[in-house]
Amino acid sequence: MSGGAESTGEGRGRSVRWPLLLLALLTVVGLAVADRGDDESGTGILLLDLGVTSAAPGSLAEGGVWYCGDGTSAPGEFADHSVIVANPAAAPVIAAVSVYPATPAGSVSASAAPREVTLTVPAWSEASLRLAEVVESQYTAALVEINSGQAIVEQRVQGPTGVDVMPCATRSSAVWHFAAGSTRRDARLAFTLFNPFPDRAVVKFTFSTDEGIREPQTLRGVLVPPRSLVVINATDVVPRFSSVSTTIESQTGRIVAGRLQLFDGTEGLEGLTAGPGIPEPQTQWVFPTGPTDSGMVEHMVLYNPSDEEASAFVGIRLDSADSGLSPAPFEVSVPPRQQIALAFGDFGAYPLPPAPFAYSASSTLPDGVGFWTGVQVYNGVPIVAERVAAASASSSPAGVATAAGTPVTAVRHLVAGNRASEAEVALTVVNPSSDAIALVTVSRVADGQVVPISQLDPLEVAPHNRLLVPVDRLTDGDSYALLVESTQPVAVGRSLLSRMGTGFASGGAVPFDPLPLDPSAF
What we know:
Layout: E1 5-6, H1 18-38, E2 46-48, E3 52-54, E4 64-73, E5 80-87, E6 93-101, E7 115-121, E8 125-130, E9 137-146, E10 152-159, E11 162-167, E12 175-178, E13 187-195, E14 201-209, E15 212-214, E16 222-224, E17 228-233, H2 234-237, E18 245-252, E19 256-264, E20 270-276, E21 284-287, E22 297-304, E23 310-318, E24 330-334, E25 338-344, E26 358-360, E27 371-377, E28 384-391, E29 399-404, E30 408-419, E31 423-431, E32 438-446, E33 449-452, E34 459-461, E35 465-469, E36 479-498, E37 504-508, E38 510-511, E39 515-516
């Protein structure tokens, strides 16, 4: 544990509880009201100050609730779980962290009550908590309640096959979708079902596989008891499928669902990726990151969980001063309850859907040129879109990274948990506007200071272009958050490349006060 964790000298499980009492009226009551059904929109809005509602993170938010459900906390497991709280504001914040052990599937009640720890995060700093220091369990989840709408929470998982860092979820939902996944021989695919609420949930699983739809009888009514974490190992239920898309739907109650995907290296692919699912399909998605390194390839998985066909345009914007080099958008159709994959290069060992559900877009991409991608559905049927990047087990860095696209932009973003001693850190800033230049400032947030990176203060990002920022080469210090501020709404991605040869992470930043994507981006 680092940062401002407060505990007694008799053990890590005991904690100073007075801040929890202080937060009770502001967060626990608000959480129960907002996510038990009184909030019909399902946005996970926090109720504060006797009727003032605001969603975190944002300029008007007075508090935030974050759900971090995807990791392990037992010796010898594959995804050691930590949470990171980053505070970019001028006042300290208090985070009440409730750590939940896993409850065996089929149990009618939680196996144990959550253990509570308080983190005090100073101004312009971050603090982290390794969940194994609080609870020892094969899987763990954390509910993080913060008395500030400016702070963010990310989760970090790390094991022998890799590392991943991603924002925790900010809402619960009755439905969750996962476009990418695999249960082939070298893979382990597990889904986390986190229910921190006082009512039980009952969920069912639907898998779109290489051979059609699968709805296993054993997963048509999975009980998730109140205040519990239940984990389902899909590899045991729908084994030996190269590519699997998943929908988890609550028949009663609401949950936060996440995914843990492991490849063990026996088939030439080694890596670990994790994170929450996608609660709502969208008609527009942007993916800021696209590979520029040889040996690293990516594909995009488009999943249509509805009963109608979706028709979309996919646009690829190359990193080139000559915008005429970018290929023309191309059209794809995603059948009902099916997935398709768009491969941007020779994917080697990574499992793709079989023909006719896999397409190659490599012919449109010059060698060694990076890119960003946009997806726009034009017939009104929303889809789920995820990007998968991979490198073979013989590459450096080897690994797998899976991340959803973003359906929003913002003028302020934050990413936490950057450790320069462990990984190379890079940001990607996309300006999706068709006519406005974005001026971008990137600042390092650590040790009570917000310091703009002088080489980047500010930089211009032209319309329909992106900015690549090798952060670790431009700033000092080991652990820090990054604040990205811009004059125009942008999309921001973050990549971590391991310095130890195993694992990389690639996902989005946390947007403050998000705005819908401008359709002209496509």
